[in-house]
Design brief:
78% helix; 2 domains; MFS transporter; mainly alpha; Growth Hormone, Chain: A; MFS_trans_sf; transport
């Protein structure tokens, strides 16, 4: 009897010990960082929302800004140049998050966002001042988003990470919904008041100071030369696709060769050969590039359709687009649950299929009614939104933790540069009258054919995305199973 009692007691002690091992130590550095990260999320996401909504708002009204300032031919710069800068600073911020305190970085971003807002508003009489202000706003607003992503990847557990990636994606599209609604509403009064919206971030400075972790990176020094060299390469890529020129292409080739030589021969580059030859990570980047290629073009094409085909006001277009981005926000909110049920590969396949249906459906139904096109847009944007969580979640299993900052930064660079290049491709095709000289599926030549053909191109890009998932799915499956 004594032996039985003793055995039972030992079993109970073993169970308690096992349970204690599974419970994180509340005083450990990892657990403290996890709690601080979760406490800082509301302020970080709100500031990110205030900065990001400006991107979609000005994607909607950039032509109005150019027309009002007598710079109609250069109006697209209001959209393309901030997008190029966004791609570069995403990479920069993500990398710096491996070394610099997130609190200091976020405060810097908020002050830049506020300065850009005031500069643009008081300089709204000059196109170039507005352009510089938008670049500063875009660069400042992205800091909070980059800090949030890197800290979520580094300090949250698997379940929390998937949930917060979905919430981050939802906030991105919520900001898009607010942006297109505010763009349509305020543009009917005076577009310069749009520039003041991010000033609301000033109210979150006390929360940033109180809750955002003040963790400085340890170990390797910041590779300023390597980061700067790569930033130039990234900028030249986006600039070339926005403003094609032989000399820019030649300059790009020289910097690519210089960067490649630096990575292969440098003493301690911030991107190692191991990083650049990581097949799993590079596969994710390729998929990310194609999935988000026409992300920025979603808004201006509906402005064109509303104006040239259905002859409705900008405020009516913005109302419909607000509905589209509300759908995207809802999909983002549940994407954590979707990835738990389907896994990464199936979720990406579903994303690509939805994008194909939305794009091709819009091409066929281009003259069947604006609300029907809005429904197709909801399907298309749901597909783009759904791809975000599985793609970014893949970074955590294709890279070691000490490279998460760089991985997220390069991923952000890929996503935003891709969208900027896609925007340039969209602008070039839509400016080419010959692109609408012939329609398919019974669509008449002219504006309707031009928009319909553009949707077919967007659908073709989604097909390429689906094919890429088919090629790399085995690798992603192995990574997922290995967790």
């Amino acid at each position: 009897m004594t032996e039985v009692t003793s055995t039972a007691a030992q079993s109970a002690q073993s169970a308690q010990a096992a349970q204690a091992q599974t419970q994180p130590d509340p005083n450990s550095e990892a657990e403290i960082n996890r709690r601080k990260t979760k406490k800082s999320l509301p302020a970080l996401l709100t500031i990110f929302l205030l900065g990001t909504l400006m991107v979609q708002a000005f994607n909607l009204v950039f032509q109005n800004v150019g027309d009002s300032l007598g710079m109609s031919a250069n109006a697209a710069l209001i959209s393309t140049l901030p997008g190029i800068v966004l791609g570069v600073v995403c990479m920069l911020y993500g990398t710096l998050c491996d070394f610099i305190s997130p609190k200091k970085m976020t405060l810097f971003g908020v002050f830049a966002l506020i300065f850009g807002s005031l500069l643009g508003f008081f300089g709204s009489f000059n196109f170039w001042i507005v352009l510089v202000a938008r670049i500063i706003q875009t660069a400042g607003g992205q800091v909070a988003g980059s800090v949030f992503l890197v800290m979520a990847m580094k300090y949250l557990n698997n379940k929390e990470r998937a949930f917060y990636l979905g919430m981050f994606n939802a906030v991105y599209y919520a900001s898009s919904a607010v942006g297109v609604f505010a763009g349509g509403l305020i543009a009917s009064i005076d577009w310069k008041y749009l520039l003041l919206v991010p000033l609301l971030s000033v109210f979150f400075i006390p929360l940033i100071i109180k809750d955002t972790p003040d963790i400085s990176g340890k170990g390797d020094r910041i590779d300023i030369f390597g980061i700067s060299l790569f930033a130039v390469v990234a900028g030249l890529v986006a600039i070339y696709f926005s403003f094609p020129s032989g000399w820019i292409l030649g300059l790009l080739a020289l910097f690519v060769l210089a960067f490649a030589a630096y990575v292969w021969k440098g003493k301690n580059p911030f991107l190692s050969k191991r990083f650049l030859t990581n097949k799993g990570y590079m596969s994710v980047l390729l998929a990310l590039f194609v999935f988000y290629f026409f992300n920025f073009a979603c808004v201006p094409i509906y402005n064109v359709i509303g104006d040239q085909i259905y002859h409705i006001s900008l405020s009516q277009v913005s109302l419909c687009l607000t509905v589209v981005y509300i759908v995207a926000t809802l999909v983002g909110c549940i994407s954590g649950a979707i990835i738990a049920a389907l896994g990464r590969v199936r979720m990406l396949v579903l994303s690509a299929v939805l994008m194909i249906i939305g794009a091709v459906g819009s091409a066929v139904l281009i003259t069947s009614g604006f609300w029907l096109l809005t429904f197709m847009a909801c399907i298309f944007i749901a597909g783009i939104t759904m791809s975000y969580t599985p793609l970014y979640d893949s970074f955590s299993v294709t890279l070691p933790q000490d490279e998460n900052g760089r991985g997220v930064g390069i991923g952000d660079l890929m996503m935003n540069t891709s969208a900027s290049i896609g925007m340039a491709v969209y602008s070039g095709l839509m400016a080419n009258k010959g692109f609408g000289s012939r329609g398919f599926f019974g669509v008449s030549a002219g504006s309707a054919a031009q928009a319909s053909n553009m949707f077919l191109v967007m659908g073709a890009a989604a097909v390429v995305a689906l094919l890429i998932v088919g090629v790399v799915h085995k690798h992603l499956s192995r990574q997922q199973a290995a967790q």
